[in-house]
Write a structure and sequence with these properties.
Blueprint (H helix, E strand, L loop, with lengths): L2 H32 L5 H26 L5 E2 L4 H11 L14 H25 L8 E2 L14 H17 L3 H14 L12
Antiparallel strand pairs: 1-2
Helix pairs in contact: 1-2, 2-4, 4-5
C-alpha cells in the first residue's frame, strides 16, 4: 500500500472511530445534565466527561488536519502495536466495578481529570504532528516534549491506571487480567516458547 493511501485510510478510520466516541460521550454528558444530582462527585464526574469529550474532539480535529508523513515505520508490527496501544484500554469496560469509599471515588475521579487535562495539553502541543501510527511528521521538542520523550503516553497511562484502580477489586485480579490480555495479544511468551 502506498504511503499516501495508507495515511488517508488511517486518517479516515481514526476520524470516524473517534467521531463516534465523541457522539456517545456527548450523549452521556446530556444524559447526566438532564438528571443533575447536585453533589460534588456528580460535578467532578461531569467535568471528567467534558474533558474527555474535548480530548476526543481534539483527536478528530488533529487527525483530519495533520501534516503529511515524512516517513513511517516499516512492517506490520508497528501498526499492530499502535492500534493495540490505542484501543486496548477499552477493555477496562469489562472489568468488574469496585465499591469505593466516597473519598476514594473523589480522589480517583480527580486524578482521572488531571490525566485527561495532561493528555489534552500534550495533544495540543503535538498539534498537527499527531498520529496514532509510528509516523514522522514534524519534530515537536518543546513544552512537555522537551521533558519526556512520550508525554502523551505518560498522561494516558496515568489516566488509565486511575480508571483501572477505581474499577478493579484487588491487585490479584488486575495482574491476572493484565497477564491474560498480554498473553492474548502475544506480548508474553507462550509455555511452549519457554526453554526448559
Amino acid at each position: 500500500m502506498t504511503g499516501n493511501l495508507e495515511d488517508f485510510l488511517g486518517k479516515a478510520l481514526i476520524a470516524v472511530i473517534f467521531a463516534s466516541f465523541t457522539v456517545f460521550q456527548a450523549a452521556a454528558i446530556f444524559a447526566m445534565m438532564s438528571h443533575p444530582e447536585g453533589s460534588a462527585l456528580w460535578a467532578l464526574a461531569l467535568t471528567s466527561k467534558v474533558f474527555s469529550l474535548v480530548f476526543m474532539l481534539l483527536v478528530v480535529y488533529l487527525t483530519v488536519t495533520r501534516l503529511p508523513p515524512i516517513s513511517g515505520a516499516a512492517g506490520i508490527e508497528p501498526r499492530v502495536s499502535a492500534i493495540t496501544g490505542t484501543f486496548i484500554l477499552m477493555l477496562l469496560i469489562v472489568l468488574p466495578a469496585q465499591t469505593l469509599r466516597p473519598w476514594q471515588l473523589y480522589f480517583s475521579t480527580a486524578l482521572i481529570v488531571v490525566g485527561t487535562l495532561l493528555s489534552i495539553y500534550c495533544l495540543y502541543r503535538l498539534g498537527r504532528s499527531f498520529s496514532i501510527m509510528a509516523t514522522a511528521r514534524k519534530l515537536v521538542s518543546d513544552g512537555p516534549y522537551a521533558l519526556v520523550r512520550h508525554p502523551l503516553y505518560f498522561a494516558e497511562a496515568h489516566r488509565a491506571a486511575e480508571g483501572l484502580r477505581a474499577m478493579v477489586t484487588n491487585r490479584a485480579t488486575v495482574i491476572r487480567r493484565a497477564a491474560g490480555v498480554a498473553a492474548a495479544a502475544g506480548l508474553l511468551p507462550q509455555p511452549q516458547d519457554i526453554p526448559v
